[in-house]
Amino acid sequence: MAEVARSRETEQDIAAEMAALGAEARVAARALAASSAEARRHALKAAAAAIRRDEAAILEANARDMAAAKASGLSGALLDRLALDPGRVEAMAAGVEQVAALDDPLGRLLREWERPNGLRIHRVSVPIGVIGIIYESRPNVTADAGALCLMAGNAAILRGGSESWHSSRAIAASLRAALAETGLPAGCIQLVPTTARAAVGILLRMDDALDLIVPRGGRSLIERVLAESRVPVMAHLDGNCHVYVHAAADPEKARDVTFNAKMRRTGICGAAETLLVDAAAADTLPAILEPLFDAGCEVRGDARVQALDTRVVPVNDADWGTEYLDAIISVGVVDGLDAAIAHVNEHGSHHTDSIITEDAAAAERFMEAVDSGIVLHNASTQFADGGEFGMGAEIGISTGKLHARGPVGVEQLTTYKYKVYGDGQVRP
After folding, report:
1. Which domains does the chain have, with CATH numbers?
2. Residues 350, 371: contact at Cβ < 8 Å?
3. Which end of the chain is more exposed for a tag (fewer CB within 10 A), N or C?
4. Contact (Cβ atoms closer than 8 angstroms) between residue 94 and residue 113
5. How far apart are CA 142 and CA 145, in angstroms?
6. What is the pTM of this model?
């Protein structure tokens, strides 16, 4: 896949290239739908080996991306998303192997029943078909998305961000080499061969070639995809995640979980952006906040939080709905469980929210009433990850309610069809 110079390409040229990708993907998807789990696993194991074999080339490509990103002033959080090192390359390879080890998601008998006329009906899992994945600065998504789509029997057209251009190309080259080695069609995993912005718009209009679009990135990207796509979209807008410290919280758990939820990695969608503390537990706030201050986190608080520590800066209304993706957290005191639930449902993004409490009934009430894809009890929001759920990897966290919600792994990348078995029945 040669690098394309944007200055020499017209939108018509790009459209022709994209149409060719779509046609090749559709042919590959048909072959994948008929493939065995063993063939797909074999290709994925070869892909993991190729990533390890090509580590030096992948890291060299990433160094080029990092240098350009630093020169352009990319934020620290986005630089963290972009950066690769030997450990992260190994994690990519291990993630591909974990996907290969999953149960085959295809051909599962989801339900069966027999009608009074003797017809036997089976609902069976099948691939979606061709999936377009649009993502920004995380090059590891190239490996995760390619592997998940392949295991689920789908062809993938990947469109990485310009920040990760060289990294994504290097990783995609490893994946495609594995396809060639194992005899699966090259069209199973393709990378859009240009960083031209027009390619995204064209991809969103390819409803004749694509069955699903999965965008993974910032709000501006997701909003554009949702506004322009003629292809069904599985997406989330952002990860405005909450930790709520209930009146019956264990203070040490509240401190440790809050710190991890905010500071483990501030630039991921599962990072906590808001801390709510029950008024009955407000005396635990200084101990919860101190580690955050020590780590350089900016705390924006309401009047009751500001009264506890002079280092707290005032929070404003916009902060409650902001995904910072940085070492900043909004903190508020709420009057009881119902007030916390109302705040999360009003200001959250329906992504991931956690309650810290030793009261099982309160925990269950929170987890039932909070309208989010993932709700946790006494655990960090940073567990919002397909790998942590045992899915091997994920394409993203869906905050929608149709088809899939929460981590999107191989099972969520399938649909179903009905097989109906008869013995000469005719409809009266």
Report:
1. 6-234+408-420 (3.40.605.10), 241-383 (3.40.309.10)
2. yes
3. C
4. no
5. 6
6. 0.85
